[in-house]
Specification:
The protein is an alpha/beta fold and 406 residues long. The chain has a single domain (2-399), classed as TIM Barrel. It has helices at residues 16-19, 27-35, 46-59, 71-74, 83-98, 114-118, 127-142, 155-163, 175-202, 226-249, 273-278, 299-308, 328-347, 390-401, and strands at 2-3, 9-13, 64-68, 102-108, 148-153, 209-221, 256-266, 316-320, 352-358, 377-380, 385-388, 403-404.
Length: 406
């Protein structure tokens, strides 16, 4: 039997746009109308049902929950803040506290206000300062009740999907624009990190813990040719570590937030730098089980990558790890295997603070719509009824006891 340390954080995660519904001032809402993609609509109805959802999380012995604030609700027009929405999020945080669940609050989870996107979005040289104004407003309102802040969710994923692959709004395909966006996201985090700490210091509050949520992938060559090995090295360095390295140089991380789902098989056909960095492998048969989106299930990758993160000498918080699948037995197999890999890394000296499964609820999975089912809790989208899956009950016992059978 494996036993995790006392004080470990157990729970699940969600993001505002994916669960709340009707975020009509967001760039994603506008894009859905124009793109013809499945619309988010009412999503999971969580904006109204959050108290019931948190009560379920409490029944499942969660002691932490990651949520996000929708910037487009807080600042629907440039420089104009909505006090009613700030009050709403205060009530959301209070509801978590009443359930004895620690809030882990994300400030940017892929979506932007329409006005911000119209100003150039994250390409705008003023983007970091525009973000900072919102950060100061919402952190100022919530500081007394929040310890953990995540400034930006998966910055490299956002830049890749929106500015290299061109699959997400604003659907550009430019390496130079992607670099500009990444530079501005780094600046935004650093400014936000300092501002958050300043707010807590001015109020004589216990210092907060501030980070990003960094998606990492276990890259591996499909065939161990020299070209594939070089591509793996470059992707590992650029995707997994470059952003974190920049933030470490600015001394702007209190812990490292990690999102881990899968490995990336690499099989490239030329030495062009854009191919080495970005081309997706056409090899589909990896010999591993997959989720319903075709992603390899590879828990060993979490162990291997966490060992590399020891170099930063910071605690690690697993902020997302999950699977979309119609097979709930596979969901539990995924969770238990990743927890065992996590524990092995901890035995090797990785300081892990907690584990949050993605996600608490089935939800709107961006350009993939509602088909992928990630939730510990099933959502019937016809009537928004919740049903706790058996995997959630098994995870509940892990949360309750801090143990899992080998």
């Amino acid at each position: 039997m494996i036993k995790f340390p006392e004080g470990f954080y157990w729970g699940a995660a969600a993001s505002a746009y994916q669960v709340e519904g009707n975020n009509k001032n967001s760039d994603w809402w506008e894009w859905e109308k124009k793109s013809g993609k499945e619309p988010s609509g009412d999503a999971c109805g969580h904006y109204q049902l959050y108290k019931e959802d948190f009560a379920l999380a409490r029944e499942l012995n969660h002691n932490a929950h990651r949520l996000s604030i929708e910037w487009a609700r807080i600042e629907p027009q440039e420089g104009k803040f909505c006090l009613d929405e700030i009050t709403h999020y205060k009530e959301v945080i209070a509801s978590l506290r009443q359930c004895n669940i620690e809030p882990v609050v994300t400030l940017h989870h892929f979506t932007n206000p329409v006005w911000f996107a119209g100003s150039g979005g994250w390409k705008n040289p003023a983007a970091a300062d525009l973000f900072l104004r919102y950060v100061e407003k919402i952190v100022g309102a919530l500081a007394e009740e929040v310890h953990f802040w995540v400034t930006i969710n998966e910055p490299m994923v956002y830049a890749y999907h929106a500015y290299i692959l061109g699959a997400w709004p604003p659907q550009e395909r430019s390496y130079l624009q992607a670099k500009k966006v990444i530079t501005n996201l780094i600046s935004a985090h650093v400014k936000a990190y300092r501002a958050i700490h300043d707010i807590y210091k001015r109020r004589n509050l216990k210092p907060p813990a501030v980070s990003i949520a960094k998606n990492i992938q276990a890259f591996a060559p499909s065939v161990p040719t020299l070209r594939n090995r070089v591509a793996v090295y470059l992707r590992q360095r650029s995707f997994n570590f470059a952003f974190v390295n920049s933030l470490m140089r600015h001394k702007s991380l209190d812990f490292i937030g990690i999102n881990y789902y899968t490995r990336g098989l690499v099989n490239v056909e030329s030495w062009l730098i854009q191919v080495l960095l970005f081309d997706e492998s056409k090899a589909k048969e990896s010999g591993l089980k997959k989720n319903s989106l075709g992603w390899d299930i590879y828990p060993e990758g979490l162990y291997k990558l966490l060992l590399k993160f020891r170099r930063y000498r910071l605690p690690v918080f697993i902020l997302e790890n999950g699977i979309c699948t119609p097979d709930d037995n596979l969901r539990w197999e995924f969770i238990s295997a990743h927890l065992k890999s996590l524990y092995l890394a901890m035995q090797k000296g990785v300081r892990v603070m907690g584990y949050l499964y993605w996600s608490l609820l089935d939800n709107f999975e961006w350009d993939k719509g509602f088909a992928p089912r990630f939730g510990l809790i099933e959502v019937d989208y016809n009537n928004y009824r919740r049903r706790v899956r058996e995997s959630a009950r098994k995870f509940c016992e892990v949360c309750r006891t801090g143990t899992i059978d080998i």
